[in-house]
Task: inverse folding
């Protein structure tokens, strides 16, 4: 099988290598930092006014070292680190002791996935189709109008834009709630009131992502289309009297989408890093905020856990893209 | 040339210029400058000239594909769509123009890599090109039509199922020719269809063009700068220089008694059998069409230049039936 030998295996090796190197970096970087996380931790506890007996401190140092995986030589730590990873064990969070990292990531992940997946699934087709048509019909008035809107929206810093949405649709016209993933105190259950509540809370964050992401896709696509439009296969189709809707769809947009597919895979992969600013502005639960707090608190296990997720997420997205791409572009074949 | 041939395409004082606006200044490139030509049915008409002399632009105009920055400055282009009546096609609506393509007049591009949609199998390309014109036809009928023609032309049977990048340059060129002839158009226009090919493949493509023309008894207008190709295929030849036709005649007349000094240069630059010397190409460079010399545009390069050549553009004179030349050296009482 040529496909397996010449296409699949090299890409799988590359995939595993990227993950291996990324995770190794996640292991090494914290160890190169000048501060000792165990002492920092104990210092923090003492600063909070906790009374610690000298003996208790020693015991705590040992158990903290164990939890951090800081016992033994680097090599021993490294081997133990991989051992835990393979068991899917990222240890416990320090600042929400004794909650496990898995549990915290598991709680934040559905929010992030739900929000970012929905936003991407809407803004990518929307931005690209409108951008594609606007690029092809760039002389039409409607195309110029959409283009102007995108030109105004696009350069806005995202947080300002998101705040503006919040102010307008949350405070000035209070159609949507201003914070949170649900009403305070709601128990998550699979029933209509809960779903409705979640949708209402997710609407503004999703809208902000759709508009800005859509504007970016729109502008990129419009530019690509104008280049594809000058390609000789488009000119030739026009000289062959091919009808315009075929030329727009099957010649121009179809080819212009190829680079955009790569962009889609990358943004899907990045979902696993969360959307920090969105989550902050809309006080929305999710991976971004979790990672942010982990960094602020020096919660190393949690940082490592989330980072490993996002490394695997991006690498997997690229692998899937690589495997599927030949379906979109026959010039790239499984040979 | 005994019987009077019927005209299928005619231009009348055609001027098509590229008008470029650059930072407030206007640059005008006179790529087709006052061209009168009459093309007959059932002939292969060759257009020759150095690169940059306006051949492609003239073809665009003949194909009625005049889009900015190219503008029709003056003149008319007539197609004899019904024998009894000429139609000035420059006045047609975009949809009318579209319908004429492939059905009445078709275009053969230089079949380099990128003229076929890279993401479509050839049968999809066929479906788009043919389906855009035979709207009543089902997909299967279109493929059947295509397969029949592929058999006749001797192309590989599986060719509809491949992607363009899987074909050689010569095969892609054949496909574009097959496609151009599928709806039996009255006129086929080819822009350097043999240029990027090696000699052996080139000969095959020329054979294919000849065969199609003999079957359809239609008109082929063929542009190439390669005089050798013209010698092989053309019935009549127009020599183009700086946006003008400077000499026109039957292939025998052009190769046997070339009268314009530029034509003579073009023919002398052809390698001859048994001649080991390097052939001389035309000395000097073609003029900029944005800034043409006064009088005969060839005068800066012409070995026979006379005083009048620098001042006035010569008119055509007709040294023989069907043979016309625009040069002060030729013509009654104006000889030097
Ligand atoms: N799209 C264009 N815009 C501006 N100038 C052009 C364009 N296409 C061709 N020209 C100019 O018109 C002249 C004739 O070009 P062309 O018709 O392509 O000549 P040929 O086919 O004989 O090589 C050249 O000077 C060329 O630079
Ligand atoms: S008109 Fe004069 S310059 Fe022009 S080709 Fe004839 S002799 Fe030469
Ligand atoms: Mg050309």
Result:
């Amino acid at each position: 099988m040529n496909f397996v030998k010449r296409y699949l295996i090299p890409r799988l090796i590359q995939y595993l290598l990227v993950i291996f190197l990324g995770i190794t970096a996640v292991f090494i970087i914290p160890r190169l930092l000048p501060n000792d996380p165990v002492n920092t931790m104990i210092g923090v506890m003492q600063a909070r006014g906790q009374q610690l007996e000298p003996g208790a401190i020693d015991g705590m140092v040992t158990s903290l070292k164990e939890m951090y995986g800081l016992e033994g030589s680097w090599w021993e730590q490294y081997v133990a680190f991989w051992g835990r990873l393979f068991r899917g064990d990222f240890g416990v969070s320090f600042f929400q002791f004794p909650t496990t990292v898995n549990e915290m990531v598991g709680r934040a992940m559905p929010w992030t996935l739900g929000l970012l997946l929905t936003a991407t699934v809407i803004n990518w087709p929307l931005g690209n189709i409108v951008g594609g048509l606007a690029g092809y019909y760039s002389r039409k008035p409607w195309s110029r109008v959409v283009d102007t809107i995108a030109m105004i929206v696009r350069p806005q810093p995202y947080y300002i834009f998101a705040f503006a949405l919040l102010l307008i649709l949350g405070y000035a016209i209070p159609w949507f709630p201003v914070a949170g993933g649900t009403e305070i105190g709601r128990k998550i259950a699979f029933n209509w009131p809960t779903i409705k509540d979640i949708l209402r809370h997710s609407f503004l964050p999703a809208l902000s992502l759709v508009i800005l992401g859509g504007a970016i896709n729109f502008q990129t696509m419009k530019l690509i289309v104008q280049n594809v439009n000058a390609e000789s296969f488009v000119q030739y189709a026009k000289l062959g009297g091919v009808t315009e809707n075929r030329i727009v769809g099957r010649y121009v947009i179809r080819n212009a989408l190829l680079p955009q597919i790569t962009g889609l895979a990358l943004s899907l992969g990045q979902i696993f890093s969360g959307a920090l600013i969105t989550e902050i502005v809309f006080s929305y639960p999710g991976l971004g905020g979790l990672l942010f707090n982990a960094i602020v608190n020096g919660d190393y296990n949690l940082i490592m856990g989330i980072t490993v997720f996002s490394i695997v997420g991006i690498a997997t997205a690229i692998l899937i893209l690589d495997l599927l791409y030949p379906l979109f572009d026959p010039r790239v074949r499984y040979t | 040339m005994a019987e009077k041939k019927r005209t299928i395409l005619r231009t009348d004082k055609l001027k098509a210029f590229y008008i470029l606006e650059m930072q407030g200044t206007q640059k005008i490139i006179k790529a087709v400058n006052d061209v009168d030509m009459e093309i007959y049915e059932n002939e292969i008409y060759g257009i020759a000239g150095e690169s940059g002399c306006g051949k492609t632009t003239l073809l665009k105009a003949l194909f009625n594909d005049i889009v900015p920055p190219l503008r029709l400055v003056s003149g008319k282009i007539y197609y004899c769509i019904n024998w009894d009546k000429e139609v000035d096609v420059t006045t047609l609506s975009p949809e009318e123009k579209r319908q004429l393509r492939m059905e009445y007049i078709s275009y053969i591009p230089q079949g380099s890599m990128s003229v076929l949609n890279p993401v479509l199998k050839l049968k999809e390309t066929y479906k788009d090109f043919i389906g855009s014109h035979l709207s009543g036809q089902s997909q299967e009928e279109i493929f059947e039509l295509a397969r029949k023609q592929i058999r006749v032309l001797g192309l590989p049977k599986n060719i509809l199922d491949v992607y363009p990048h899987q074909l050689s340059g010569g095969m892609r060129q054949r496909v574009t020719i097959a496609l151009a002839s599928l709806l039996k158009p009255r006129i086929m226009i080819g822009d350097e269809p043999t240029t990027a090919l090696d000699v052996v493949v080139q000969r095959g493509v020329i054979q294919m063009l000849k065969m199609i023309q003999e079957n359809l008894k239609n008109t082929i207008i063929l542009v190439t700068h390669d005089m050798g190709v013209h010698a092989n295929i053309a019935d009549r030849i127009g020599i183009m220089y700086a946006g003008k036709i400077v000499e026109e005649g039957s292939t025998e007349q052009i190769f046997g008694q070339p009268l314009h000094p530029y034509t003579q240069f073009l023919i002398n630059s052809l390698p001859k059998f048994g001649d080991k010397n390097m052939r001389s190409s035309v000395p000097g460079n073609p003029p900029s069409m944005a800034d043409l010399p006064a009088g005969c545009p060839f005068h800066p390069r012409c070995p026979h230049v006379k005083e009048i050549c620098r001042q006035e553009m010569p008119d055509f004179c007709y040294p023989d039936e069907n043979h016309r030349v625009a040069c002060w050296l030729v013509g009654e009482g104006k000889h030097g």
